[in-house]
Every structure is written in structure tokens, then in C-alpha cells.
Specification:
Helices cover about 40% and strands about 20% of the residues. The chain has a ten-stranded mixed β-sheet with strand order 9-8-17-16-15-10-14-13-11-12. A four-stranded antiparallel β-sheet has the order 4-5-7-6, covered by helices on one side. Strand 6 and strand 7 form a beta hairpin.
Length: about 500
């Protein structure tokens, strides 16, 4: 079914000027003009005292108006949010038909008779319209000859035309009708630190860590995943985002941790009470490599004894991680410290051998740890083929790219360049926590990681410190679960 729309005239100059004044840039220019005029009037009328008082009021008013949702949530809910949604509708009313017409999503027919000469446009028809908390949801019926792909392109054109944050087209709701969801103001803009880890059901196939651009919880799949590569610039939120994931997992007795901090700082100090292995000396390569190789031995021992331990070949097909056979989370933070050949002095054969052994151990854990219940997470702020070798990156089931500068760095983390319509790690907001997540299926999604303040991370880790179990590195043969004999027999709440 189609709808006839007569061709409209070009807007008048007066209309252009009015829309320019209503644009965001014009509103801010006008606001600054009013601020300057107010300051001048106050100085002329009351001198320096008046200028100082008005300046404080202006600065405070501008700051609080920009953060109205935080200072006055009731005012935001009752007044600002409805006005914002009315503005979205007005903007849609203004941009809908020009976008449809200008993008080639409608067809033009000219009918000439003796009495008239009429041009008619046939385009997509709106069958429903609903304003949501974060944008507008449109039910669109395509015109004859247009496909789902055409409407998806229309959605992208509307996103660009209306300066929306994101768009999603869903063709599954009802045959012949497509739902186009425009996110005008993503909830990711207003995220603040959490006080507690995000609620988790214990399902390792869906560990929550943040939100998608549509405001839905984003979850990480750890089930049958042996490795996840993480890369991004300093300050992009790698450590904070990953810390939230570990704080969530730390509440489960079926998870144990091994942390290798390549920065040699205190970013990971919060988890030391909960970690079975905590290595912070970034200069002691030998100790780090020995511990990694011991974890590889634990993995191999688990694989050899899994039928006896769990009655099957894989931890995931026999009930998943448990207190007796826990998921071993191995974080190698800033792995370039141990893997980058450029960090090895020329002629230093010992250091070169340790670097090669570290790469081999990490690659083995990432490649073979799935059935044994190993999740290895190498992270780097220098994503290159040297600091993140292909022996590791190409075998990781998933990857997380925080903000990076170059397409080469993005490919080093995610394994490939973004496709048409895919989010890119080189083009995302500069606020910490934004990332592009690539799953084992190859799909990409723009998300923002939630985070906890360091004091809350320490509180969480201290509260669950009794769940820590020592990973036995020396005598694995009698018990292939990777736990020491003492930890296998003590009650859950006993101190390690």
C-alpha cells in the first residue's frame, strides 16, 4: 500500500534562517551573546561586585543546566525529557520527507492531463510512531519494489540527517512492516560509576559488563571461550572495564584468578586478596614465565584427567566450572612488556628465550584452554603484530578494541577492518569505556563498559577473599583439578 504525497516547494529563506537559529550551534552562539551582554550590563550597573556575582550565577547556571538530570531528576523527568522528545518529533517531521526524497527511497510519477500537470511521489509509509526514552521508533511499510536493505539504508540516512547516535532496523516484527529505531540520545553518554558489580545469574554464557548503544545490557560470553584479546590507548578504559568483569566473576566460588601486571603499578592491586596468583614485578621475566608455564601444565593435566574429574572431555559439557574444577581467569595486562621483541636488548639470548617462552605459553593457553576451563586475556596499549603476535590474536575467540588511533592497530586487535555499517575503534567517543566488541561469530557491536571506583573494587575483593584457592603448581598428578590438596578438602569459607 502506498501513499500519495504532492511535491513540495523549496523552503523560503526566512524558513532557512529560522531553522538555523534553532540549530544546536546557533543556540549556543545566541547563549554566549546573551552571557556577554549580561556581564556588560552588570558591570556598567553595579561595577566589579555586580560582575563577579553575575559571573558566578551564569557559570553555575550553565553547569547545572548541562547536568539537569543529575541535579534535578524530577525536573528532568517532568519537564526537560518531554520537551526533548517533542523536539525529536519536530526534527523528524522536518527531516523525514527530504531524506526519503533526496536519498532515492521514493519514486516520482508525472501525470499530465488537459486540465493539470501533477507530479506525485510514492514513498515509504509510516504505519506507527512511538517516542521511547532514548529516541523514536518508527513502523515503516516499504513501497512497492523496495526491500529490507533499502529501508536499512533509509534508516542510516535518517541517522545521519537527524544526527542520531545509532539506528537499528528490525524486519522480524511483522511481515511487510519494518521497525526503524533511532537512538537520539544514547544512554551511554550519561553512565556513572557503579557501586556494586552488575547483577549476574552465574551463567558463563552471559557475564554483564556494560550497555549497548541502545541501552540494553551488554554481556560477555565466557562459555567455551579460551581467549579474549583486549587493546586500546592509555586511558581508554581497558583496565577499568576488565576490572568490572573480574569483580563480577570474583563473587563466584567457581572462578580463580591469575593476574600478571605488565605495568608494574597498582591498577590491579585491588584483586590481590582474591587472586590465586598475583605477579606485579614487570622486570622479573623469569618468574612470570615460570608461572605461566606452570599454568600451561595445569591446563594439560586437566585435559588429561577431565574424564576422571568430570566424566567427559570438556568442562563445559559436564556442568560448567565448579568449586572443585574452577574457571581459571588469566589476565596478562600490558602483554607487550613480555612479548614485544623491541623490549629485548640485542644479543641478550636469555631475555629473547624468555620472551619466546612467554609467547608460547600464552598462545598455548589461548589455543587449547577451552575444554580445560581456561580464559586467558592478554591486554595491550600497543596493539601491533610484535606486541600482540598472530599466534595469540588469531586464536582468540573474541576481541575487545577500546579507542585506538590507526586502522592498523584496530586490525591487530580485532583481526580485520570494519565492514560497511560496522562500528570502528578509530571513530568513537573519547570518553573512557567505549569499545568495539567482536565475538566468535565475527559480528561487531559498539558498547560502553561500566566501571567501579577503586575503593569499591577493593571492598568487593575483600568481601570475597575467602573464596580464593591456591593453584597447585608443583604436584598436579594426584589431582588434576589445579587446586592444592588443602584447598580441595577445606570448607568454602575457610581461609586459604
Amino acid at each position: 500500500m502506498t501513499v500519495e504525497l504532492a511535491e513540495t516547494r523549496e523552503p523560503s529563506d526566512l524558513g532557512r534562517i529560522g531553522r538555523l537559529m534553532l540549530s544546536q550551534a546557533a543556540r549556543w552562539r545566541l547563549a554566549w551573546v546573551l552571557v556577554v551582554v549580561s556581564l556588560l550590563v552588570s558591570y556598567i550597573g553595579w561595577g566589579w561586585h555586580g560582575l563577579t556575582g553575575v559571573s558566578v550565577l551564569v557559570v553555575g547556571g550553565l553547569y547545572m543546566s548541562a547536568h539537569v538530570e543529575h541535579f534535578w531528576p524530577d525536573v528532568h523527568a517532568e519537564l526537560v525529557a518531554p520537551l526533548r522528545r517533542i523536539g525529536w518529533l519536530a526534527w523528524l517531521w522536518y527531516r523525514w520527507w527530504p531524506t526519503v526524497k533526496g536519498g532515492g527511497f521514493a519514486r516520482r510519477e508525472r501525470v499530465m492531463t488537459d486540465a493539470s500537470d501533477r507530479v506525485t511521489w510514492y514513498g515509504p509509509r509510516l504505519r506507527g510512531l512511538r517516542v521511547t526514552r532514548h529516541g523514536i521508533r518508527l513502523a515503516v511499510r516499504p513501497p512497492d519494489g523496495k526491500t529490507v536493505e533499502d529501508i536499512a539504508k533509509l534508516g542510516e540516512a535518517l541517522r545521519d540527517s537527524m544526527k542520531a547516535d545509532a539506528v537499528e532496523v528490525d524486519a522480524r516484527t511483522r511481515p511487510g512492516k519494518l521497525v526503524v529505531s533511532l537512538v537520539m540520545r544514547s544512554p551511554l553518554r550519561d553512565m556513572r560509576p557503579l557501586v556494586e558489580p552488575m547483577p549476574w545469574t552465574g551463567d558463563f554464557a552471559a557475564v554483564p559488563y556494560g550497555y549497548t548503544i541502545f541501552g540494553e545490557p551488554a554481556c560477555l560470553r565466557l562459555k567455551e571461550v579460551s581467549g579474549t584479546v583486549v587493546g586500546g590507548l592509555p586511558g581508554s578504559g581497558k583496565t577499568a572495564g576488565l576490572s568490572l568483569v573480574l569483580a563480577t566473576l570474583a563473587q563466584s566460588p567457581a572462578v580463580q584468578f591469575a593476574i600478571f601486571d605488565g605495568k608494574g603499578g597498582y591498577d590491579w592491586q585491588w584483586i590481590e586478596p582474591r587472586a590465586a596468583i598475583f605477579h606485579r614485578d614487570d622486570e622479573d621475566r623469569a618468574a612470570m614465565v615460570e608461572q605461566l608455564e606452570s599454568l600451561v601444565a595445569v591446563m594439560r593435566d586437566r585435559l588429561n584427567r577431565m574424564p576422571d574429574l568430570r566424566g567427559g572431555a570438556s568442562i563445559w559439557t559436564t556442568g560448567g566450572p565448579s568449586q572443585s574444577v574452577p574457571l581459571l581467569v588469566i589476565v596478562v595486562d600490558e602483554c607487550q612488556t613480555w612479548l614485544d621483541p623491541g623490549a629485548v636488548s640485542r644479543g641478550d639470548k636469555t631475555a629473547a628465550d624468555l620472551r619466546q617462552r612467554a609467547e608460547t605459553a600464552i598462545a598455548t593457553l589461548v589455543r587449547k584452554g577451552r575444554s580445560a576451563g581456561i580464559w586467558c586475556v592478554p591486554t595491550t596499549q600497543k596493539p601491533t603484530s610484535d606486541s600482540l603476535p598472530t599466534t595469540i590474536g588469531s586464536n582468540a575467540a573474541s576481541a575487545i578494541a577500546f579507542r585506538v588511533k590507526t586502522p592498523e592497530a584496530e586490525r591487530a586487535v580485532l583481526g580485520s577492518a570494519p565492514g560497511d555499517g560496522d562500528p570502528s575503534a578509530t571513530d568513537m567517543p573519547h570518553e573512557a569505556g567505549y569499545a568495539v566488541v567482536s565475538t566468535e561469530t565475527g559480528s561487531r557491536e559498539l558498547v560502553r563498559f561500566a566501571h567501579l571506583e577503586e575503593i569499591d573494587l577493593r571492598r568487593v575483593a575483600t568481601a570475597v577473599a575467602h573464596l580464593r584457592r591456591t593453584i597447585d603448581m608443583s604436584n598436579r598428578e594426584p589431582h588434576g583439578d589445579g587446586l592444592s590438596p588443602r584447598d580441595r578438602t577445606e570448607p568454602l569459607d575457610a581461609s586459604p
